[in-house]
Design a protein that fits this description.
heterodimer; A: alpha+beta; Alpha-Beta Plaits; 5-stranded antiparallel beta sheet; 3 helices; 6 strands; about 30% strand; B: alpha/beta; TIM Barrel; 7-stranded parallel beta sheet; 10 helices; 10 strands; about 45% helix
C-alpha cells in the first residue's frame, strides 16, 4: 500500500522592493532549495506554490510535513527574486488547504493596516553613518 | 502543564555602515515576531551614540518592542581589545568581539568582560580549536553565528562556510558553549523570522532544541544577566547590595 503523505501548507509573505510574478516566485523558491539541498533534496520535498497574490504579496506553498524545516532554511537563505533584494516570511503553517486559505485571508486583512509604511520605508535609500 | 511562550531575540542588527533607519528595522522585527532586538552601534563619538540610544529606545517602546544595545569590537591586537573593553564595558549591554587572529581570540575567551565571540566563516576551523573552546567554557562565553555570513551567491562558498561552521561549532556546543544565532543584518530586507533563523541553525547544530534555544533562551539569558550586572547594586556574581545605610 502506498504510504499517505502528510502535507503542510505554508502561508508566506514576500518582502521585496519589486513586484515579482508567480513564475518568478516559483523559480526563486526552487532555485534556493536546489542550491541548498540539491536535486535529491528536491525529490524528497515536493514543493508546490498553490497560490500567490501579486498585490498583497501573500501566497501558499505546499510541502510534506517532514520537509518543513528544509523549506524554512532554504527560504531564509533566499536573498533576491528576479534581481530585486527580497526575503520571504512564513506567516503561518496549516495542515489543510481550507484552513490555510482562511488564514491567508486573515493575514491579508491584518497586513493592510501596518505593512504599507514598512514597504514605503524599504524603498527609500538606506542611510550611512561614518 | 502549560509551557510559557517562547520569546525570540535577534541579537545582531547593525546600525553602522550602510543601514536602514532604526525605526524601520524595529517595525520589521516586530512584524517578524521578535520580542527583543539588539542594535549594534558605532561608539564614536560617545555623546552622539547616547543620543541615538535614547531615540531608538523611545521608538521601540512605542512599538512594544524590547531593545538592547551592543558593541562590536574588531581589534587586531590584544592590547587594543583590553583598552576598548575598559572604555566601553559599562555603556553597552552586550560586548561582542570578532576574532581575527589567535591572540585576540584567546584574550577574548579569557576576559569576562566579553560576552559574545564571533568569527569569519573562513577563520572558524583555525581559531575555534579545542583550547579556545575550553577557555570559552570556563569563562561562560557565548558563540555567535550570523545568517548573513551564510548568504552567498556562489553555492561552493556557501557549502564551505556551512562545513566550517558545522565542524567547529558542533564540537563547541557539545562541550557546553551556548550558541546564539542572529541575522547580522543592517537592512530590513536582510532580516529573517525567528523560526527561519532556527531552521538554518538546525543545519549547523543538528539538534532541534538547541537550534530553537539559539534564537530565544540563550540570547534572552545573556541580556537578562547583563542588565542585572549594569545595575548600581551589582557587586559580583551572586552578591548585590540589598540595603545601604
Amino acid at each position: 500500500m502506498v504510504k499517505r503523505v502528510r502535507w503542510r501548507y505554508l502561508i508566506f509573505h514576500l518582502h521585496t522592493t519589486g513586484s515579482p510574478s508567480l513564475e518568478d516566485v516559483k523559480k526563486a523558491l526552487k532555485r534556493s532549495f536546489r542550491c541548498l539541498f540539491g536535486v535529491y533534496g528536491l525529490s524528497l520535498c515536493q514543493l508546490k506554490v498553490i497560490s500567490y497574490d501579486e498585490t498583497s504579496k501573500l501566497g501558499v506553498l505546499k510541502c510534506p510535513h517532514k520537509g518543513v524545516p528544509m523549506v524554512r532554511a532554504s527560504i531564509a537563505l533566499l536573498s533576491d527574486i528576479a534581481g530585486n533584494p527580497s526575503s520571504i516570511h512564513v506567516v503561518a503553517i496549516s495542515g489543510t488547504l481550507k484552513r490555510a486559505m482562511m488564514r491567508l485571508n486573515f493575514a491579508s486583512e491584518k497586513l493592510k493596516s501596518h505593512w504599507r509604511e514598512v514597504e514605503e520605508g524599504m524603498k527609500k535609500p538606506s542611510q550611512a553613518t561614518e | 502543564m502549560i509551557m510559557p511562550k517562547r520569546r525570540y531575540v535577534d541579537l545582531h542588527v547593525k546600525l553602522y555602515g550602510d543601514h536602514d533607519p532604526p525605526e524601520l528595522l524595529a517595525k520589521m522585527a516586530k512584524h517578524l515576531g521578535f520580542s527583543l532586538i539588539a542594535f549594534s552601534l558605532d561608539p564614536t563619538p560617545l555623546q552622539r551614540c547616547n543620543e541615538i540610544m535614547g531615540e531608538v529606545k523611545k521608538t521601540c517602546e512605542q512599538l512594544g518592542l524590547d531593545v538592547a544595545f551592543r558593541l562590536d569590537l574588531q581589534p587586531l591586537r590584544s592590547g587594543e581589545l583590553k583598552s576598548l573593553l575598559r572604555k566601553y564595558r559599562r555603556t553597552f549591554e552586550v560586548i561582542a568581539v570578532k576574532c581575527r587572529n589567535v591572540s585576540v581570540a584567546r584574550v577574548a575567551a579569557r576576559d569576562r568582560r566579553v560576552d559574545v565571540t564571533y568569527f569569519d566563516p573562513s577563520d572558524v576551523p583555525s581559531l575555534l580549536d579545542e583550547s579556545q573552546v575550553n577557555l570559552m567554557v570556563e569563562s561562560g562565553h557565548f558563540i555567535e553565528v550570523n545568517l548573513l555570513d551564510l548568504v552567498y551567491e556562489q553555492p561552493e562558498k556557501q557549502a564551505r562556510a556551512l562545513w566550517n561552521y558545522r565542524v567547529a561549532i558542533e564540537a563547541a556546543v557539545k562541550k557546553g558553549v551556548p550558541l546564539i544565532f542572529s541575522s547580522g543584518s543592517s537592512k530590513a530586507l536582510e532580516m529573517r523570522a525567528p523560526r527561519e533563523l532556527s531552521s538554518v541553525a538546525l543545519l549547523i547544530v543538528g539538534n532541534e532544541r538547541l537550534a530553537r534555544d539559539s534564537v530565544s533562551i540563550n540570547p534572552m539569558k545573556l541580556i537578562e544577566v547583563n542588565r542585572e550586572k549594569l545595575k548600581p547594586t551589582y557587586v559580583q556574581p551572586g552578591v548585590k547590595v540589598v540595603e545601604s545605610w
